[in-house]
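thought: fold this chain, then report.
action: predict
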Amino acid sequence: MAFQNIVVSTEDGVGLITLNRPQVLNALNQATMDELVDALEGFERDEGVRCVILTGAGRAFAAGADINEFKGATSVQMLSQYRFQQWERIRKISKPIIAAVNGFCLGGGCELSMLCDIILAAEGARFGQPEINLGLMPGAGGTQRLPRAVGKHRAMELVLTGRQISAQQAYEWGLVNRVVPAEMLMDEAKKLAGEIAEKAPVAVRLAKEAILKSLDTPLETGLDHERKLFYLLFNTQDKDEGIEAFLNKRKAKFTGT
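observation:
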């Protein structure tokens, strides 16, 4: 599939997607989001891909939505578009997605990074939800995922002031997993993705599902769901391989069966 706004490749079981509109700091217009969803769903169907890395070209991961698409738009027009259906499709991707955040990660870009499962940030990265400066508010999950990541009070400060925070502060607040030198960002992301790609694919998918379920359900319901997924894995050949490898002190070779 030919893409105009993203660059897609694979490497050793890892799918790589680069947002590629550097002239507008990778602003997330509808066309870019359509391509992103198509690429992710393609990787979802590809048994050879076990983990995905999402990053941005140039000076930004993504500096937000493409504001040109908002100019003159009415509430009815926004409601009738399928703008947020794309985000729901991304949320349903079962394979782990690592955000490798370089530069600006603002507005929709910050929301997109939070939609990923793990966030690595370059030292110069900047995070924020500046929609309030446009007389708007986050609309792609910022008011819901940000409080879960950094807590109510910090989320209120970021959303209500529109301020940006550094990668280090984002790490200290719990928004990102770790901060690395910019020149090492992709190497670190690939190393992490490669480590995940070596694990049993079905177990990885179900573990991701269980963790995401914990954010939406009471503890008792989440525990019940976790146990059912745990029992399900006993029907996989990878479970047998993992246990056999452990007992024989060798590295397991998982096949996804």
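thought: worth noting. The chain is about 45% helix and 15% strand.
final: tokens above.
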